[in-house]
Design a protein that fits this description.
The chain has helices at 2-28, 36-67, 76-99, 102-109, 120-127; strands spanning 133-137, 142-149, 158-168, 171-174, 180-184, 188-193. The protein starts with a helix and ends in an 8-residue tail after the last strand. The longest helix is centred in the N-terminal third of the chain and has 32 residues, at 36-67. Helix 1 runs parallel beside helix 3 and helix 2 (36-67) crosses helix 3 (76-99). 49% of the residues lie in helices and 19% in strands. The protein is elongated, with a radius of gyration of 25 Å. The chain has two domains: 2-109, no CATH class; 129-199, SH3 type barrels. By secondary structure, the chain is α+β, with helices and mostly antiparallel strands.
Length: 201
């Protein structure tokens, strides 16, 4: 049993940075979670990349120590600290890039893809922030408002509409005394994004 523990623990310590990186990424980004197998493969790839970067850092610090000055002694604890720190930084960095469409924007500008880093549903709301929208319900009703929160999935979740007004025969009827209205996405057929006031003819 002790022999098994001595073999398994180093393996687990080696794999932790990759799993930590993917865990942070999927916690913070709106990317759909793949299967457990796919996430494990991503974690293994992340571990390999982090290991390469840590090896480069180790080489650089040892070179610095041999030629200029010594910062300290390289140890397993230092190596693990670098690996975990890189995992956290990469996890936050990748989630920031995914939530702001940074990497896909570069890829689109380069002609490598036409996709965004999140689904078209989320992309539409992020593309037009602050716009008034009209929710068209399955039963024919229409609701105007400003979405503060919207579902990340077109089939579930809720809209949080600020300053809601029902549209009846093309007239806006304010919901008296209501500043926010929570609407279930399952009742919505489609969403209209309105022009900005300065663009309205």
């Amino acid at each position: 049993m002790e022999d098994l523990a001595t073999k398994v623990l180093p393996l687990v310590q080696t794999l932790v940075p990759g799993f930590l990186m993917t865990m942070i990424f999927y916690w913070l980004s709106e990317s759909p979670k793949p299967s457990q197998f796919e996430r494990s493969i991503q974690a293994l790839i992340g571990t390999a990349i982090i290991s390469l970067v840590v090896s480069a850092i180790k080489w650089g610090l040892l070179y610095l120590g041999h030629h200029w000055f010594v910062l300290g002694e390289w140890s397993n604890t230092i190596e693990t600290t670098w690996a975990v720190s890189l995992a956290v930084v990469l996890g936050f960095g990748l989630s920031f890039a995914a939530n702001h469409d940074t990497l896909y924007q570069i890829a689109r500008d380069s002609g490598l893809t036409s996709r965004a880093s999140y689904r078209e549903w989320v992309y539409a709301f992020r593309k037009f922030p602050g716009r008034g929208v009209v929710l068209n319900f399955l039963d024919g009703r229409r609701l105007f408002g400003y979405p503060l929160v919207w579902p990340t999935d077109p089939k579930e979740g809720h809209f949080m509409m600020q300053y809601p007004a029902w549209i009846v025969d093309d007239d806006y009827v304010d919901a008296s005394g209501v500043e926010f209205l929570l609407v279930s996405n399952v009742d919505v057929l489609f969403v209209e994004f309105l022009n900005r006031p300065e663009n309205t003819r």
